[in-house]
Amino acid sequence: MAAANSVIVLDFETTGLSPNMGDRAIEIGAVKLIDGEVVDTFQQLMNPGFRVSSFIEGYTGITNNMLAGAPSCEEVMSDFNDFIGNDNLVAHNASFDKRFLDAEFERINRSYQGEFACSLLVSRRLNQEAPSHKLGDLVRYMNIDNDGVFHRALADSQMTSKLWLLMLEDMQQQGIHQPSFSLMQKVSKTSKATVGKLLQQHTV
């Protein structure tokens, strides 16, 4: 049973919202956790082969000049495929990152074995009193140590990994020893009203 504290936490910056509309990844950041410890990180800009909009430049701070000298998406994603191996994956609003991961891997005929869990959906169940579940708002709400950088891939994946570990810690304090990855997936899909019951079933 895979432990929830041994995962790859990842984040993409992209040219837009949908790979189906021709959008591409422009930065990937990831943190590799083993037994709750950060053992490695991955961060790389990548050139999508076209200019990004001024909105995206302003939103991410990633400029066309920065991307001009960056390696291609294909090259970076091939390296990233090696980095993640068969580990399970976590992202904040995972459906977004999964869409881009799948689309970029498909372009280079690579795949992955790991499954995804969404820290945003888990947070909605475990931190029901939080005013918002946007990453920046949760970082402030839970007093997560940060350097104030948002919308850059490595900074966001580092903060997501801290959030993820805090939620696991919280579950352990409730008597759930070593929460499994599959339990976290289950939590994310359970209704807010019944999540307490689910957690009780897993307490020691």
From TrEMBL:
It is an enzyme of class 2 (transferase). Transmembrane segments: none annotated. It catalyses: DNA(n) + a 2'-deoxyribonucleoside 5'-triphosphate = DNA(n+1) + diphosphate. SUPFAM superfamilies: Ribonuclease H-like. GO terms for cellular component: cytosol. Its EC number is 2.7.7.7. One of its GO terms (biological process) is DNA replication proofreading. The keyword Amino-acid biosynthesis does not apply. Residues 6-173 form the Exonuclease domain. Keywords: Exonuclease, Hydrolase, Nuclease. InterPro entries: DnaQ, Ribonucl_H, RNaseH-like_sf, RNaseH_sf. Coiled coil: none annotated. One of its GO terms (molecular function) is 3'-5' exonuclease activity. DNA polymerase III contains a core (composed of alpha, epsilon and theta chains) that associates with a tau subunit. This core dimerizes to form the POLIII' complex. PolIII' associates with the gamma complex (composed of gamma, delta, delta', psi and chi chains) and with the beta chain to form the complete DNA polymerase III complex. DNA polymerase III is a complex, multichain enzyme responsible for most of the replicative synthesis in bacteria. The epsilon subunit contain the editing function and is a proofreading 3'-5' exonuclease. PANTHER family: DNA POLYMERASE III SUBUNIT EPSILON, EXODEOXYRIBONUCLEASE 10. This is DNA-directed DNA polymerase. It comes from Vibrio ouci.
